Amino acid sequence: MIKTATARKFARSLIEVIEKEADLETIYNELVALSDLLLGSSESLNFFSNPGIPAERKESAMTEITGKMGCSAVTRSFMFVLLKKRCIGLLKEITVQFLLFIDDVKNRVRGSVTVAEPLDSGEYALLQKKLSDITRKEVVVSVDVDPSIIGGVITKIGSLVIDGSIKNQIKLVQEKLLN
Amino acid sequence: MSSLSGRRSLAAVIAVAVFLCFSFSIAYAAEEGEHAGIDIAKEVFKWINFLILAGALFFILKKSAKEFFEMRIENIKKSLDESRKAEEEASVKLKDAERKLSALSTEIEQIKKNTAKLIEDEKNRIVKESGDKAQRIIAQNEKNIRYEYENSLKELKSEMVKNAAKMAEAILTEKVSTEERKRVFNKYLSMLGGIN
Q1: Rounded to whole angstroms, how far apart are CA atoms A51 and A44?
Q2: Has residue B1 got a pLDDT over 50?
Q3: Which residues of B touch A173 (CB under 8 A)?
């Protein structure tokens, strides 16, 4: 919980220094790539987290990494701040929180749909459009396949749940019969 | 007091009688002892003595005897009165007892009737209470049976519905084709359109 709150503070401070909205996605992608790289292996995580290693060496390594990855100046500066604050370990959580801020800025929501069989691109687009119409926001949905729902779709966007699965229909009929 | 004076008079009469008997026996003994011929002077003397004695006795005993007999009469009258009174009282008591006896038999009859009525009432009450209790027990039992029946029916229904739902799920999982799934998907989209 404290970790999330701290990550949220870092994400908010980062988004406040970004001037162009167009840079948001770029910076997010850079953060995701850096997170995968730095936190993906225990060696790199230990290197940047170890207080025994001089800060100069860590800064030097960070400069080299961000340079080779072609990161923007904002991302580089942010990584140095994290290094100085010894919060590199929070990078993944910061990325998640940063994405939520981007979604908010871009009037976008994220949700998930559960289907019995995978959706084709046309179905996905239709569903996404319908959900966007309902929420009046751009909707980004992740699709989960669960054959146990038999058919239909279960959509979850935040606290909104629209269950149109055949399994749920059977459950409703069952409840109706029992009452 | 009168009883005491009566006893005195009686004692005096007895004393005179004893004295007379004693005198006659002496005279008789004297007569036997002499075995002589009849002496007229003596005989007259005897009679004079006798008359004097009798007169003296009459004079002496007249008052006492009169008193005695009067008292005796009085006592007898009193006794008779008392006896009559006692008889009357006994008669009254007898009548009272007879009346009471008669009333008692009536009372006994009444008590018997009352007791019979009480017994009948009690019997009716017990029968009524038993009937009511039996009705209540029957009603409660019917209620319990109905509750158990409804509960069992509900459980059975629940079990049947659950099984039916499981079977429906199994059948639909097996039978629903991709086309049908797409149709359900499109219906879902229509429903989302309705929400909007």
Answers
A1: 13
A2: no
A3: 165
